[in-house]
Each structure stands twice: as structure tokens, then as C-alpha cells.
Design goal:
There is one protein chain. By secondary structure, the protein is mostly helical. The protein has one domain (2-118, 170-303). Helix content is 82%, strand content 0%. It has helices at residues 2-18, 20-24, 31-54, 58-64, 67-119, 122-126, 129-162, 165-168, 173-187, 189-196, 198-206, 216-241, 255-281, 290-308, 317-350. Helix 5 packs across helix 9.
């Protein structure tokens, strides 16, 4: 049922566009402390609980998977975890609105072109109409990124002029831009993780797991890899900043509230992939649009939150118009990429 699939993608996009909000409300902790607790819930507890509920014998299933399959799936999760870590940093340096726009924009570009380049089919794409439409979508995306970048630099100037010390403390467009580029590149490893873990999904269906949930055990392995990367980095930062006391309540902040906020953020983050996987199974012939819908809903919801929270309140009207235009262009690019997938599916069907 396509309408149900769209609704599920919308819920997943809302979760992805919202998860960083609770983290931004943590007070008195170093950034790495909140991010680590968030990671424990999003990459360990939530996926294991869901897998335990929907997979009859999770331990037996994973034991039956060839070690090479587990190893490659875990490795791509490890690399993708770097993307997740740097995405959090991009939101820290750029804010929710600009951070999501740039990171998702680069993710769209790299996530679209890296797989065909890796598989050796990128040259073939250039000789077909869908391939040209795809490249056009990527160019539109890059244009949107450039406009968002101009808005970021304008915002940095506006904040400095307004002496908004509180908001300018972490905001750094230059740092955020490089972090967002790297985050987008590494995030492409998620698709490789699912590809490497396909035998796990196939084995899951043979073990009685419903088609709707077959990727759940795959996600467990990928996210363990992602957690490994993030945990190591956060613990190193804890040691460097001497912030281990955050976890033990040795600050003036409300430790219980910070744990709760990080847990809410973690579970909310995981829900994006849970609903994305569910939505994909409901799209039928329109499954080509799943990734496009997911990114589009993230862009919409994250920026609605940014506007409601007044992230751009100190920015001048021209700067606000720039960021709105950039976000709209990035959103448009996802629709063009979706059109290219549609044309590819139709051309493939017409040849049979």
C-alpha cells in the first residue's frame, strides 16, 4: 500500500529530523558524553530490543551467518559510524538547519554516485537518459549546497555583527563545511553495509522472520560497527577533556535529565531506520522513491524545527531568504534524483 509506505517514510523522516533536538538540550556535559549515551541507546539497545522482539532466535541466526559476511557488514558499519559521528559534529558547528542541509546534500551526492562507481556501472549511466537526469539532479543538489553555504557564511557574519556570543560559541561555517563533506562521503558506507549483509536478511526469512523485518538483524551488525567507532572517539575525548565525571553526576547539571535526553535522542534516531525499512516494503513498484522520500522528509522536518527554535532569529532577512532558497533547491534535487530512478525502472521494464 503506497500511501502507508509514504506515511511510514514521513514518520522516519520526522524521527531523523528530530533526534538531535534532545541532545541540544543537554546542559553541563561535554558534547562527547551526550553523544556516547545517545549512541548506546541508538546503536546498541534499541536495535537489539527490536531484533529480539521480531527475530525468533537472534543469537542462533547470527551464529549461523558466515564469519566473512559478518566481518564485511561490521566493517562497513565501522566506516559508516565515522559518518554518523561527523554528522553530529556538523550539526554542532552549523546548527540544525544548515547542518542537516549540507550533510544531507553531500550524502545525496556521494550516496548516489559512490555505489555505481564501486560497481563499475557509472560509465553505463552516462550513456542513458536516466543517467543524465541523475547527473542533473546531482548538479542541482550541488547548487543547493552552494546556496546553503552562502547562507552559512552570511549567518556567521550576522552573528558576529550582533555579538550573539551564545549562538556563535560553537558556530563555525568553515569547520562545519569540511565536516559535512566528510560525513556525507562516509555515510555512503551504510548502503554497502546492507549489501554485504544481504545474506543475513535472506537467512532471516528462512528462519521465519517476516519480510517486513528481514533487515532488522542486518542493522544490528551494522550499528555495532558504528557504535565501535563512536565509542572509541568519545572515550578519547572524555580522557582529553577530563569529562568522565559527567557520567557520574560530578557536575552541577541534572545527571538524570541528561541521561533521559540522550536516551530519547538515541531511540528517536533508531526509529528513522526502523520506519524507513518498513516503508520500503510497502512502496511496491514505487520503491525507487524510498530514499528520495526519506531525505526529503528529513530536510522538511529538521528545518521546521530550526525555524520554530529560532536558529536564524539573529540573521538578516537576506540571509534567511538564502537558507530557505538553498533548502528548497536541495529538496528539489531529491525529486530529480527520484525521477531518474523512475525512468531507469521504466526503461528496464520496457526491455523485458
Amino acid at each position: 500500500m503506497v500511501s502507508l509506505g509514504v506515511l511510514l517514510h514521513a514518520i522516519g523522516g520526522f524521527a531523523a529530523g528530530t533526534f538531535y533536538l534532545p541532545l541540544s538540550r543537554i546542559r553541563g556535559w561535554s558534547w562527547e558524553s551526550g553523544w556516547l549515551i545517545n549512541g548506546i541507546f541508538s546503536w546498541l539497545i534499541a536495535p537489539l530490543v527490536v531484533a529480539w522482539l521480531v527475530v525468533p532466535d537472534l543469537r542462533g541466526l547470527l551464529t549461523a551467518v558466515p564469519s566473512a559476511t559478518l566481518g564485511w557488514t561490521y566493517l562497513f558499519g565501522l566506516l559508516w559510524g565515522i559518518g554518523g559521528l561527523t554528522f553530529g559534529l556538523s550539526c554542532r558547528f552549523l546548527g540544525l538547519s544548515l547542518g542537516y542541509a549540507l550533510a544531507l546534500g553531500f550524502c545525496a551526492v556521494f550516496g548516489t554516485i559512490v555505489p555505481p562507481i564501486y560497481e563499475g556501472t557509472f560509465g553505463t549511466l552516462l550513456g542513458q537518459v536516466p543517467g543524465f537526469v541523475l547527473l542533473g539532479g546531482l548538479c542541482v543538489c550541488l547548487l543547493g549546497i552552494a546556496v546553503c553555504g552562502a547562507a552559512g557564511m552570511a549567518k556567521e557574519h550576522d552573528l558576529a555583527a550582533a555579538h550573539a556570543a551564545g549562538r556563535a560559541a560553537d558556530f563555525s561555517f568553515t569547520k562545519g563545511l569540511f565536516v559535512a563533506i566528510f560525513a556525507g562521503l562516509m555515510s555512503a558506507c551504510m548502503s554497502f553495509g546492507f549489501a554485504a549483509g544481504a545474506p543475513i536478511a535472506e537467512l532471516a526469512t528462512r528462519h521465519g522472520v517476516a519480510e517486513l523485518w528481514k533487515n532488522t538483524p542486518v542493522l544490528v551488525v551494522i550499528l555495532v560497527g558504528g557504535f565501535t567507532t563512536n565509542a572509541i572517539w568519545c572515550l578519547l575525548l572524555n580522557a582529553r577533556h577530563r569529562s568522565f565525571g559527567d557520567y557520574l553526576g560530578r557536575t552541577a547539571a541534572s545527571t538524570a535529565l541528561n541521561y533521559l535526553l540522550a536516551a530519547i535522542a538515541g531511540v528517536t534516531w533508531y526509529l528513522q531506520f526502523m520506519f524507513y525499512g518498513m516503508g520500503s516494503t510497502q512502496m511496491g513498484a514505487y520503491d525507487f522513491s524510498s530514499w528520495t522520500l526519506h531525505m526529503a522528509f528529513i530536510i522538511v522536518f529538521s528545518n521546521l524545527w530550526a525555524i520554530l527554535l529560532g536558529e536564524w532569529r539573529e540573521a538578516k532577512p537576506r540571509t534567511l531568504r538564502l537558507i530557505i532558497s538553498g533548502i528548497a533547491i536541495v529538496f528539489l534535487s531529491t525529486l530529480v534524483v527520484g525521477l531518474s530512478n523512475y525512468l531507469a525502472c521504466n526503461s528496464g521494464a520496457s526491455q523485458h
